[in-house]
Amino acid sequence: MLAGRPLRVLLVDDSAADRLLTRACLEDAKVVIDLVEVDDGEAALEYLQRCDARDLPDLILLDLNMPRVSGIEVLEELEKDEQLKTIPVVVLTSSSADRDIVATYELGANCLVTKPVDLTQFEQIVRNIADFWFMVVRLPSGANPG
């Protein structure tokens, strides 16, 4: 928990199955998580624009290939905003294209993880992300939940 509140995670993915699986894995995390789910980049940007500084997510899990507004476009908008660009972003994507990988890092993403097709591997990756970002890393708020 950060400053007495759950970790706030924004999950942006157009796949309902991937959101469901990610949610289930995050519920098993060793910390309390307030998960906000949206199904595309447009909804993510609308959500972030409605948040005041206290309500911003501590971490964004972002898919790249989505309708309406892509993950790349979300990263572009985050980079333009002084308040939003400090939010750590983990890109979880099915893409392994070099152009996507380069663009993701150029736009400030903290890491890119390719979603495996295998269900067990996907679950393990989400657990590893949760363990790393929630138990090891110091988030911009300055608190370390681990």
Structure report:
With 146 residues, this protein is an alpha/beta fold. It is built from five helices and five strands. The chain has helices at 16-27, 41-50, 71-80, 98-106, 119-136; strands at 7-12, 33-38, 59-62, 89-93, 111-114. It has a five-stranded parallel β-sheet with strand order 2-1-3-4-5, sandwiched between helices. The longest helix has 18 residues, at 119-136.
Give a quick precis of the structure.
The chain is α/β, with parallel strands linked by helices. Helices cover 40% and strands 17% of the residues. It has a 5-stranded parallel sheet with strand order 2-1-3-4-5, with helices on both faces.
Topology diagram in text:
Elements: E1 7-12, H1 16-27, E2 33-38, H2 41-50, E3 59-62, H3 71-80, E4 89-93, H4 98-106, E5 111-114, H5 119-136
Parallel strand pairs: 1-2, 1-3, 3-4, 4-5
Helix pairs in contact: 1-5, 2-3
